[in-house]
Amino acid sequence: MRVTRRTALLGSAATLALTTALPAVAAPSRKLIGPFTLGIASGDPTPDGVVLWTRLAVSPLNEDGLGGMPDRVVPVHWEVAEDERFRRIARRGVAHARPEAAHTVHVEVGGLRAGREYWYRFRTGGEISPVGRTRTAPGPEVLRTELTMCFASCSKYEDGHFTAYRRLAEDHPDLVLHLGDYQYEYQGKAGDIRQVLGPETTTLAGYRQRHAQYKTDPDLQLAHATAPFLVVWDDHETENNWADEVPEQPDPHFLTRRAAAFQAYYENMPLRRGAKPNGIDLQLYRRIRWGGLVDFHMLDTRQYRDDQACGDGVRVDCAARLDPARTITGAAQERWLLDGLRGSRARWNVLGQQVFFAGLDYTAGPQKGFHMDSWGGYVASRNKIAAGLAQTRNGVVLTGDVHQHWAADIPVVFDEGSSRTAGVELVTTSITSGRDGSDKVNETTLAENPHVKFNSNRRGYVRTRFTADELRADFRTLPYVTKPDAPATTAASFVVRDREPGLHRA
């Protein structure tokens, strides 16, 4: 299947053509016109299943965040098929979109075949959703397989167009990782490329409205309809640079805001019910296995971290960052991760996480400046995880946050030039954050950090291909995002070979 066909599946002609194959559904008392304005999605695949998601909204941008939906439960029929024309139905059922959950639907489908491609759709009140493609993970014994996975981060609506999501979809990935800053909380301002609605998001209604505005973007909808997503948040899904219960600026209402942000995030992502929030808590870190090829350890480096040392930015001579008690993961998540790395039998162990891990000295000359919001502000915590990666067969860290492409070898010990290599870090630039960027390379930072092999300041994403023998990473870039429909090209490619920690230019 090529992207032109996938794009067509999102069109009205395909939608109308497929309605006759669905079973009859009793119409609600008041017909819902166009309830699938926010698209569909799938996520967290296992060998026998996947999560299906949609959210009903007939007027998606309403200020109350409820999408113009009636205050009642709406039955939603769903189907999963082995073919895109839905002639071979694998599973079907009925879910209930409830007003207290903003009429979202999370269906945990089981009983599917491992390592298979499937198609899915929803229907309610005579209206049918777009069709999405998803796939299950291979069985645990499967090693000799291939995985094309793309990962992305930092999609700021007001900074430009989400063309990079469309280009990502055109690469036909089997899986997509989103590493945070899926949406931004800021109020719009004069000069924005696209206008966001409402004030800065602090309430449940505000977060729901903001998520809905993002979800109306056709390029983002296409990416979700193309492959299952594994998602984790960073800071902007709640507030810039928050750390556990500490906001960026003093705010007596921050925990109420955090609970609202968590609720809206769960409602709008294809997550399993184990991630359903309980007040200010949400279990987001988890492990997804792709056969015997890759173990994905998805981390949460916001909810359990100590407050940033010496402030949030780049600091020189900040002794507090060396405090052995400081943690970015929290003790429980750290034990879970290290135990998972030790017990993994996968060929590749991949950390999907938020902030720069390998270490960057941002200051020219003998002084060293490190960014306190990254793992550089939590040195002891970082070194424990790096030591764990060094013990695995092939350790890979995937990162977002910094709005630039980076590729680096990971020293086992931070800030020690002679340290051996624990694994590699691949950092994706933003989808739009920072607008177009430029072709200027950060020569100073490259000179100060010999373990760093590549930098680019354009927008885009990273495409990877995993096999039993090697990992290939293509850094995809767009020349502009302030206008729509930019092309994507590969700025650089790297290969990591089995049992050879370190990057090789392809």
From TrEMBL:
One of its GO terms (molecular function) is alkaline phosphatase activity. Residues 38-136 form the Phospholipase D N-terminal domain. The keyword Signal applies. It is an enzyme of class 3 (hydrolase). The keyword Secreted does not apply. Residues 150-475 form the PhoD-like phosphatase metallophosphatase domain. Residues 1-26 form the signal peptide. Keywords: Hydrolase, Signal. Its EC number is 3.1.3.1. InterPro entries: Metallo-depent_PP-like (IPR029052), PhoD-like_MPP (IPR018946), PhoD-like_sf (IPR038607), PhoD_N (IPR032093), Phospholipid_Metab_Enz (IPR052900), TAT_signal (IPR006311). This is Alkaline phosphatase D. It comes from Crossiella cryophila.
